[in-house]
Amino acid sequence: MDAYLEIRLLPDPEFPVSFLMGALYGKLHRALVTLESSQIGVSFPGYSQSPRGLGDCLRLHGDQSALSQLMMQNWLKGMSDHIQCSDILPIPESVQYRTVSRRQFKTSSERLRRRRMKRKGETWEQAAAAIPDSVERRPDLPYVHLRSQSTEQSFILFIEQGELREQPTSAEFNTYGLSRQATIPWF
């Protein structure tokens, strides 16, 4: 991983930044699926848990060749009025590293109980005894609304940043540019 590029969202009076980030990130996901790429990672320099948001910048990390191949796909079509895209640039000399990954939550005990009843053939009372209300967790991470290319289902993708590290870890990224193992340069 020796290069990056930034795609910055421009202010728009009609659309909130979160909506535009969702559209941009959805387009990136479709492009990564089409390319079958596992060598491009993402980061969000404006990431914040309070106030919760991903910010107005999507940074793509990878080798110069992988980023060039992605940008030749014309995947940003339809977003040109809403973005400013940098050239592909070399990673700065001294950086730290971190993971950027998906985090899934058990958000609804009611949903989990219905699912358990269906899967195990249990009654409501049995499922309620097995799954207490305390399993619910209110997510506090920034997120983006997306549609999966494989299932066509809409969902919320919660994004978690790992702790800063001094050394990079190589691994593959998924088609959302996320990984629990692979690190991206953080600067």
TrEMBL record:
One of its GO terms (molecular function) is endonuclease activity. One of its GO terms (biological process) is maintenance of CRISPR repeat elements. It comes from the Bacteria. Coiled coil: none annotated. This is Type I-F CRISPR-associated endoribonuclease Cas6/Csy4. It comes from Marinobacterium marinum. The lineage of its organism: Bacteria, Pseudomonadati, Pseudomonadota, Gammaproteobacteria, Oceanospirillales.
